Amino acid sequence: MKENKSVKKDFLQIRDGKIIQLIPEKSETSKTFETKTGRKFEAEVYTNLVSNIKYLQVFEDEFDGITYKKLSVTMCDNQNNWECLTMSFNSNVGSSLICRLSNPEFQPIQEVNLGVFKDKDGFDVLFIKQNGLTIKSPFSASNPLPKWIETKVNKKIVWDKSEYLDKLESLVEDINKRLKFEPETMTAINPITRTDESLLLVDDNQDDMPF
Question: Rounded to two decimals, what is the model's pTM?
Answer without folding.
Answer: 0.81
